[in-house]
TrEMBL record:
Residues 21-170, 309-458 form the DAGKc domain. SMART domains: DAGKc. GO terms for molecular function: ATP binding; lipid kinase activity. InterPro entries: ATP-NAD_kinase_N (IPR017438), Diacylglycerol_kinase_cat_dom (IPR001206), Lipid_Phosphate_FormReg (IPR050187), NAD/diacylglycerol_kinase_sf (IPR016064), YegS/DAGK_C (IPR045540). One of its GO terms (biological process) is sphingosine biosynthetic process. One of its GO terms (cellular component) is membrane. Transmembrane segments: none annotated. The lineage of its organism: Eukaryota, Metazoa, Spiralia, Gnathifera, Rotifera. Pfam families: DAGK_cat (PF00781), YegS_C (PF19279). This is DAGKc domain-containing protein. The keyword S-adenosyl-L-methionine does not apply.
Length: 678
């Protein structure tokens, strides 16, 4: 029993629980789609151990389609089972009850006790069971699941009410919970598109429906409850009673209900019916204020969030080719609703060609916009930053905060923004998109570093993320042919390149980072400063870098290399942590490299296995240092060099950090008060 106490964390087993071994097994159904797809994991991690320790015997069935459990219980041998347990939401409870009621021996079938492990959205059945036994429902899903696992393993058999329901299409159904019409029904039904959010889907849809109440025309006939009513008594049910006979007051659906109070018990309430918006204004206001947090933060919400309406619109670019072509659908299904309910004002532009966003931001009136949001991968972020930096008034343009909704392959920009605010990145694309939609609607303005980059063909570019040479550059560039695979394209190409590693000849000159370095200070930038002046250490590309340590800060590393990566942020994609110590605005670049030698293939394979956690610096063959500036000089005639995932001319390239020069839509971490602008 000690393991049960440990599993429960702060729940303890009372001394009067008697554990008796059952001769029969319980039939357990697990809906793998339940609880935003978490049901099976919850059962295996938190339920199976409890049942094993209590010697609770069961057989588990994973449902394969809607109605599977209903079909299954229609044909089981009742004598083989001690009960039925549903690891799901309430849908499977309804399904099994109606499956049992469709049997010829439904009277015997109903004697099988039904248990419930909460692995869905509503979880009302187990909540009512616990409430009836005077138990408080646990405050986290994991504890709630363990609580139910213990209850099912140590249960008594308790009766509960059903309601017989006749519908207009001739069905006879049996309800264990409720009949809904109006706003609750709409919320229950129309929240299905947010099922991936789990229980929070109801809150999201409820706010929408409260803010836009509907009217429901009709009437309700009813018989009031009375203690001495002659209602159907279960003692009168016999082995020959059919489910068609399971009523006492109901009339055939084609007959009108008599409502003359002198001759019948039936009374009538006439509509129309509607949700009373005004009487719930306080609740609506609170929900409206906090909804964007409730969507994905399943904990107590801060009480001091201040929401202020923006006077200007955000300029939103959607790349329809992003995310394997799913960007527009993701925005329309998961972003627009969040922004609408937040009263977040925006204008949406669908990009029509490569460079469209860059061209567009070069000519916008800055005063018209509150910020720029990119529903895309990282390519559009790079494009817009360089578009803003090409303006004559680039200093003012950079004050526009940039937001990012992850609708592409890499999605590094939003990943780093979330990482910097100590938020975990959501595990599915849909949740990730909603998380970003909420962040953009409720953002604070946060600074981030850029790097100024000079290429061998005379371009001056501005990087928000990384400069790649070696295997990462090849993977980034040559995986383009697999773009239809989304993020998976990087994995496919990485495996190919590890198995056939290339050698990259050349050298890297760099200036080490120092806390008291005299690097470019953004406070020294004036309205007359040009982008050509945005450097402190760089030399013209046609001049050699001096490397005499007695006269210069520059140092040199000679190749050959297998991997070279220079980053200004921690993550270079959602799943790759290239430099775990880096932040949005730490004021330095991180140079890392792996030398080409006889162990290259093994070293690369080891490195790639650690990139998801950012632990690859633990390997002594991964050399790294913090730097202020660099010049990378390949000795080869051709190859790939990438800046923020975009291919640039192959040849010498140099760069320098520009600390805190950019602005993004983010969140301050570890603050007591959150000022939330909408």
């Amino acid at each position: 029993m000690k393991k049960l106490v440990l599993i429960m964390n702060k729940l303890y087993i009372t001394e009067d629980i008697v554990m008796t071994k059952r001769d029969k097994r319980a039939l357990v159904f697990v809906n793998p789609a339940g609880g935003a797809g978490e049901a099976y994991r919850l059962v295996m991690e938190y339920v199976v151990g409890v049942w094993s320790e209590s010697e609770f015997s069961y057989q588990m069935i994973i449902t394969e389609y809607a109605g599977h459990a209903r079909d299954y219980v229609r044909t089981i041998q009742l004598a083989d089972w001690s009960g039925i347990i549903l690891a799901s939401g309430d849908g499977l409870v309804y399904e099994v009850i109606n499956g049992l009621m469709s049997r010829d021996d439904w009277q015997e079938a109903l004697k099988l006790p039904i248990g419930h492990v909460p692995c869905g959205s509503g979880n009302a059945f187990i909540t009512n069971i616990l409430r009836d036994s005077k138990q408080s429902v646990m405050d986290t899903m994991e504890k709630f699941v363990v609580q139910a696992a213990i209850l099912t393993a140590t249960h008594s058999v308790i009766p509960f009410d059903l309601a017989v329901i006749d519908t207009c299409d001739g069905q006879r159904l049996f309800s264990f919970l409720c009949i809904e019409w109006g706003i609750i029904a709409d919320v229950d039904c129309e929240s299905e598109k947010y099922r991936f959010l789990g229980e929070t889907r109801f809150t999201v849809e409820a706010v929408k429906r409260i803010l836009r109440p509907r009217v429901y025309n009709g009437y309700i006939d009813y018989i009031p409850y009375s203690d001495n009513d002659d209602t159907l008594n279960t003692n009168h049910i016999t082995s020959t009673t059919t489910t068609a006979q399971l009523h006492h007051h109901l009339l055939p659906m084609n007959e009108s209900i008599p409502t003359d109070s002198s001759t019948t018990k039936w009374l009538r309430i006439n509509g129309p019916f509607a949700h009373d918006f005004e009487s719930n204004l306080t609740v609506v206001t609170q929900w409206h204020r906090n909804i964007t947090y409730a969507v994905y933060l399943r904990r107590s919400l801060p009480q001091d969030i201040v929401m202020t309406k923006r006077d200007k619109r955000a300029l939103v670019f959607v790349n329809p080719a992003g995310g394997a072509g799913k960007a527009y659908r993701l925005v329309m299904e998961y972003v627009v609703g969040v922004w609408s309910e937040s009263e977040f004002s925006y204008q949406m532009i669908i990009t029509e060609y490569a460079g469209h966003a860059r061209d567009y931001v070069r000519t916008i009136q800055l005063a018209d916009w509150s910020g720029i949001i990119l529903a895309s991968g990282d390519g559009l972020v790079y494009e817009v930053i360089n578009g803003l930096m090409s303006r004559d008034d680039w200093q003012e343009a950079l004050k526009l905060p940039i937001g990012h909704v992850p609708c592409g392959s890499g999605n590094a920009f939003i990943t780093n923004i979330l990482r910097d605010s100590k938020q975990s990145v959501m595990d599915t694309m849909e949740k990730f998109v909603v998380q970003a939609a909420i962040l953009t609607a409720t953002h604070s303005v946060i600074p981030f570093d850029l790097a100024v980059i000079d290429t061998c063909d005379g371009q001056r570019l501005f990087s928000f993320l990384c400069i790649e040479w070696g295997i990462i550059a090849d993977v980034d560039c040559e995986s383009e042919k697999y773009r239809f695979l989304g993020e998976t394209r990087f994995t496919v190409e990485a495996v190919k390149r590890i198995l056939r590693p290339r050698v990259y000849n050349g050298y890297i000159d760099y200036i080490p980072y120092s806390d008291n370095d005299d690097t470019l200070n953004t406070n020294h930038i004036t309205p007359t400063t040009t982008t050509a002046q945005l450097h402190h250490h760089l030399l013209p590309m046609n001049e050699s870098i001096p490397t005499d340590s007695s006269t210069t800060k520059w140092l040199r590393i000679n190749g050959p290399f297998a991997h070279v990566l220079i980053t200004s942020k921690a993550s270079i994609s959602k799943d790759i942590v290239a430099s775990s110590q880096s932040t949005l605005s730490d004021g330095y670049l991180t140079l890392q490299f792996i030398r080409s030698n006889g162990s290259t293939r093994t070293n690369l394979a080891k490195t790639f296995t650690k990139l998801s956690e950012g632990n690859h610096f633990d390997f002594n063959f991964v050399e790294w240092m913090r730097i202020r500036a660099f010049r990378l000089v390949p000795n080869d005639d051709h190859g790939n060099i990438m800046v923020d995932g975009e291919k640039v001319a192959y040849g010498p390239i140099q760069g320098e950090i520009l600390p805190g020069i950019g602005r993004c839509m983010g969140k301050q971490s570890n603050v007591d008060r959150v000022s939330t602008n909408i």
